[in-house]
Amino acid sequence: MEISKKELSTVNEIIYKNMDLWLKKLNKRIHLKLYALVYDNNDKLTKIVRVKKTVPASNGEPGVAQDIFPEVDLQTVFDELRILPADEGKLPATIEVLKCFLDKQCYKSLADYKQKSAEDKTEESEVKAQPESEDTRLLYANHFQYLGAKNTQVTLSYLLEIRNVDAVSRELFFSRPQFSFLRMSLDYFFGNYFSMNPKGEITLQDNKIQSRFDEDPLLFNRRMSRLFFGKMQEYILSNKSADVPEFNNDLKFDYSIHSLMEQMDEISSLPYENASPFGSILFLNSQAIDLPGLIRFSIQFKETGRILLDDAKRIRKLLELTNEDKDLYLIADHRHIYGLGEVNWNLQHSTLAVRLDFNGLSKLKLVLVHTEAELSKGGELIVENDKRYYRSDLAMVEQPLISLCSKNPRLGEEGYSSERFMKLLENTFWKGQSTAAHQSSIKALDLIVRKAREQKHGTMVVITNPDTAEQELTTLSKQSTPIEEKAIHPDHVKFLTAIDGAIYFDTQARCHALGVILDGNAKPDIGDPSRGARFNSAHRYLHKLKDNGDQKCVIAIISEDGMVNLIPENENEDLLLATAEEMIDLINVDEPDLNKLEAKGKLLLESSIVDSEWLFKVGRACWNAEMYDKAFEFANHAEDQANSEFISASNYNLIGICYYAKAHNQDDDQANMKYYEKVIEMCEKAVENSLHGENRYHIYKQNIGFSCYKLFQILKNNSDDYYAILEKAIYSLSEAIEERKRRSLENSKQLYFRRAYCLQEQAESEESEVTKEALYRKSIDDYNLSLELEPKDPDSLWNKFLIHEYLVELNDAVECLARVLVLKNEEIYMEQLVEIINKQPDLILVARAAYTAQTGSASLPSELDKLYEAYLGKLEAFDLEGVAAAKEVTSHPKPDPDGDEELDSN
User: How confident is the model over 822-872, as pLDDT tens digits?
Assistant: First the structure.
């Protein structure tokens, strides 16, 4: 038995929201995309669902959109995530194989995928430099066993794409996974975040999944921090190697017996002589500390005098002796402080070394430290005693594992990363089109900001174009120390920023001034009263430049504890989501503020990271508010933004109806032809992506039929190649009609009328009289069904008249004409009726009966009354029983009814 769609949606939403909240606590810029893969008891993949955050539902809270893929094919997901399959193009066959594949292969998969995609592209004349890594994501898979309603047992495997992860965290995740806080937390989330029954299955009760320890994402993160510190403490005790990757985290509760995090947090909470704690402890295994030559102690305690890690006050005093610049640390094992010393790193080899940095009150950072040979710098070949040696440089590699602020873990560099800073510079000054020379300057400026972070009193680094820098420093000469513009050695930056004010650079990494006091105009909407003077003056200065001809500027604001704020801020997923929410609220009011809508819409439409789902939601809101041009703009941008992603059937339909509205509001046949072709294309994709029994198949087919109907009318006047589109119109309308019947839905008059019209046109193009008559008969049947739904429809009656006239069924033809005449008293109808009756006078009786039935009166128009009186006179004089039928049939154009009708947007 399969899990129901409703049950699966509820479980997916719970999993997504808990995971999203937890990851956002680690780093607010992290963006999660989730795929749910449902496997039955035989490990057969039965369903694929893409789960992601959307703009709010009617209750105002952001929810999740769950797109069920119509085809259960893992390749679709791999294509969306730009993952190349395993060797020989094989897709992972089982859940475990999928997890293992992503663990060991995916770190390089995006680069491989891009290389493959670019193989057929011609080279550009100017080679543009790219950042070292454009990929800010990692991929991960794990699963839950799930016991559902009616004892349904399935495996819910989740494939995650986590975006905006810093480079160090990504590299640890795949190269040294046992030291990845994020990987450990993911493994524990799937292993013991939710409560499980004795068989290890999660269950849904009252639309909730119970948390195992009644913890929210914040408490889960704190528990993971304690376990991770405990894990590192155990690794130090066992002298674990850092060089052998271990991908699977056993859920070891032994880690919780260690108290390293609490011990270090207590030290970090103690000031010394009113100074915040700064300094470092280097942890190594006790046997490694005793290795000859590895540690050069400046101060070494006697074995009986070693200080326990829980002696917070003594260790806090000793921190004042450390100096990271001089590589001088407190040396410790898993229990004791041994003394103060430095490390001879060329003897480290595979010895595990973990450094704990104290960065202010209640601020900790755990760092993995090791060395790597830097062959790229060149080595030296040495020959001794007929043996050949190659000597190369050793590079110190410091990989931050996790930062803590008041026991709360943070992933990344507390708001700053080289990737984020470099991307901001590139987008601000070169719109993503930087050259190799620009990239060199960007890297130099990144190093400058990093070095400025070492300045303990806080500072600012201002970066503008060379012309702006020269102009501004002329203006600011009395409130700065201008210098001859030149490159500054990065190691000198922390000394040059020791004075008050900002240090001013241009985009070529040349320094123009020191101690710059930034000016700017105060405005009600600029700044944050909860932040300091440095933050607010930077914002005022940035806006001053923006108002003065939109001059570009980037400012790095560095606080005393080394935290960095970058302005202007890079695009933020939460900000964009909030903007989409605000847009929908504005659209739904009675009189929308068009200026605000335009400004917020521009922000979404110009974003490179906005989620296509949000754009579709805004587009649909615009459509419902009859803002069709805006709906068209957002739906089209959403399609572009989705790129290779799966687009749901309803969203393809939205794109289609926007094109339909576009065509409906102009008279250019050539343009409209392309628009209707686009409608058909989009609605056909909606049909492909709709699910049997869970879709609006009839709506998409109806919209295809209506668009083919419109396109045919253009082609009929401009091309002989219209028969295929006519056939498609008939087929699609028939599918829509039958599907509506199957669902016990009432069919509309337009469905029957348009199919009747198309059948009538198809009959007129047939040479075979037998085929022609058969098509006419089908057309008459549809006109009759249309008239049952709308008896007073002159267009159906007129077109039906034309067919009866051609088939020489004059009684029916006259009846239709008489009914039309009642509805539309137009000259053409009377002329046709009189002409037929003159040829066959007795038909006046049919006309009279139809006319009086419609009006409820025996009174006839004067033309018909004369014919009626004349007919009666002849009957009396000659006693005629009948007259010959009319021999000539005149062709007349068929009207296009209800030209203003819109397509169904549901």
Answer: 998 888 889 999 999 999 989 999 999 998 888 888 788 889 889 888 888
Expressed in percent and rounded to 5, the helix, strand and coil fractions of the chain are 50, 20, 30
Contact 404, 225 (CB under 8 A): yes
Closest CA to 36 of 60, 62, 15: 15
What integer pLDDT is reported at residue 883 of this predicted model? 37
Residue 779 CA to its chain's centroid (Å): 47
Sign for the pseudo-dihedral over CA of 20, 21, 26, 28: positive
Radius of gyration in angstroms for the set of CA atoms belonging to the chain, rounded to a whole number: 38
Q: Assess contact for 517 and 473: CB atoms under 8 A.
A: no
d(CA 47, CA 3): 10
Instruction: Tell me the C-alpha distance between 235 and 428, whole Å.
Output: 44
Helix/strand number for the chain, H first, E second:
30, 23
- Residue 395's identity, in one-letter code, is A
* Lookup: tokens for 664: 């409906």
**pLDDT of 303 strictly over 50:** yes
Task: Domain 418-567: give its CATH code.
Answer: 3.40.1700.10
Peptide bond preceding 568: is omega within 30 degrees of 0, i.e. cis?
A: yes
The phi, psi pair for 791, rounded to 5°, reads -60, -30
Q: Where are the domains of the chain?
A: 5-115+126-165+179-209, 236-410, 418-567
61: DSSP letter: S
DSSP state of 683: H
Q: How many CB atoms lie within 10 A of CB 561?
A: 16
Per-residue pLDDT tens digits for 416-454:
677 778 888 888 898 767 788 888 999 999 999 988 887
Other Cβ atoms less than 10 A from the Cβ of 426: the count is: 19
Q: Which range is least confidently modeled, 302-316, 557-571, 781-795, 852-866?
A: 557-571
CB-side exposure of 116: number of CA atoms within 13 Å?
A: 11
Instruction: Quick: pLDDT tens for 773-792.
Output: 999 999 999 999 999 999 99
Which residues, 6 or more positions from 562, have their beta carbon under 8 angstroms from its beta carbon?
359, 360, 414, 453, 454
What pTM was computed for the model? 0.77
Helix (H), strand (E) at residue 28: none
Instruction: Give residue 108's Cα distance to chain centre.
Output: 22
- The 3-class SS string of 420-476 reads HHHHHHHHHHCCCCCCHHHHHHHHHHHHHHHHHCCCCCCEEEEEECHHHHHHHHHHC
The b-or-e profile of 711-743 (16+ CB within 10 A means b, else e) is bbbbbeeeeeebeebbebbbbbbbbbbebbeee
Whole-angstrom distance, CA of residue 146 vs CA of residue 143: 9
Would you say residue 888 has pLDDT above 70? no
Q: How far apart are CA 509 and CA 519, in angstroms?
A: 22
Q: DSSP state, 12? A: H
Q: What is the mean pLDDT of residues 739-767?
A: 91
Whole-angstrom distance, CA of residue 532 vs CA of residue 370: 38
If one counts every other C-beta atom within 10 angstroms of the C-beta of residue 53, the result is: 21
Residue 447: name the closest of 505, 361, 391, 400 by CA: 505
Q: Is 385 helix (H, G, I), strand (E, B) or coil?
A: coil
Cβ atoms of 323 and 454 within 8 Å: the answer is no
DSSP state of 374: E
468 or 567: which leads in pLDDT:
468
Report how far residue 586's alpha carbon sits from residue 581's, in angstroms, rounded to the nearest whole number. Answer: 9
3-class SS of residue 720: coil
Confidence of residue 522 (pLDDT cuts 50, 70, 90): low
Q: Helix (H, G, I), strand (E, B), or coil: what is residue 27? A: coil
pLDDT, average across residues 611-640: 92
Ordered alpha helix ranges (H), 323-432: 418-429
Question: What is the spatial distance between Cα 199 and Cα 210, in angstroms, rounded to a whole number?
Answer: 16
Q: Give Cβ neighbours of residue 125 (< 8 Å, ≥ 6 apart).
A: none
Average pLDDT over residues 287-310: 92
